[in-house]
Write a structure and sequence with these properties.
single chain; 132 residues; alpha/beta; Rossmann fold; four-stranded parallel beta sheet; 6 helices; 17% strand
Length: 132
Amino acid sequence: MIGIIIVAHGDIGDSLIKAAELILGSIDNTDIVRIQRNIICEKLRKEIQKKMEKVDNGDGVVILTDMFGGTPSNISLSFLNNEMVEVISGVNLPMLLSIIQNRSSFGLKELALRAMKDGIKGISVPRRKLRS
């Protein structure tokens, strides 16, 4: 099973995991790294590395970050030299649910692409959909 780490500002990761658990129940091989003010980048990198080792059972790890270009994303990108790591920026609940539900069925790269597509599908302007 592919491991999941959410690296995000403040408590965003906690809230996403709690919401996913409300929908799906208990979630294994998942962890969170919270970014606070004045974080030391090397300390953050070590924390991510430690959590990756915890959630990876050999199938790889998906690191989800809240936004591309922010500290969570920038530090997480440094792990892409490992073929068993994928980073997806712009995490939302549909993306997280997609990963949780599909991570035992797909390889790491395919899972990441599917999750990105499902995350994008989860974004809408309802007024436009209702008019159709």
